[in-house]
Protein: Carbohydrate ABC transporter membrane protein 2 (CUT1 family)
Amino acid sequence: MSARTYKARDFHRLSTPWNVIFNLFAGIFAFLCVFPFIFVVIISFTDENVLARDGYKLIPAGWSLEAYRYVFQTGDTLLRSYGVTIFVTIVGTIVSLLFISFYAYAISRKSFKYRNFFAFFAFFTMLFNGGLVPTYIIVTQMLSLKDSVWALILPLAVNAFYIMILRTFYSTSVPDAIIESGKIDGAGEFRIFLKLVLPLSLPGLATIGLFSTLGYWNDWFNALLYIDNPNLVPLQSMLMRIETSMQFILQNSQNSSLSLEALRSLPQDTSRMAMVVLATGPIIFAYPFFQRYFIQGLTVGAVKE
Structure:
């Protein structure tokens, strides 16, 4: 038996003790990744007085739903903010995938005459941008998107870094022979892209789609700049406003008509954790839809023997 064959067998077939050790290590690492969120959930259900007396504990002495009652007392406002965020996330991800996939595919083809120019155009925006003031003027005055849901979608629709990732994926995973075969059969560029390229690009598109989904779901800054209509406030921005209002009440408690006991009963730390759970929980369910392709998309450009 050659040394090369022995090495290959030794690498691919681990002994039982090593297999147990590696699985145990992977399980511990996975638990350490999940534990912070579990701990945040526990704190959000902890009684505020118990938290102030005993501090953060894995098993608190008292439980309470007061933090969630405080957040949900906004009623329809919270549900409306959830609806705005879900709409912006879904539509924004679709629009972003369309723009990025078309742009990346064009600059990945050697037959495209101006691919170097447009590749440099995208790369240049990764290094330099126009700044906040010109962006605000363009969105509010030139495009007239003030107090529009599109002000939450279009500014994040195209990301130069995602374009470069997807261009690399197209260059390494879509052979030129497939494109040529489509042209021989008389297919146009759009038909080649839809029928031949997209089915091969699911790992890359899933990776970019997950990044875009997280970006839209967690965005609050665009709402701060462009949204004054309370009916268009997304979830993250609304939770931030609740937090700001609570801090304002506590800081101005001497001038407030509320009693000192009522002010002390406000769930400060637990409400923050409840906001984290409400903002993070739904997006967790997006991962199973992307998990099948995510790892393969992250290894784009990897060298195989």
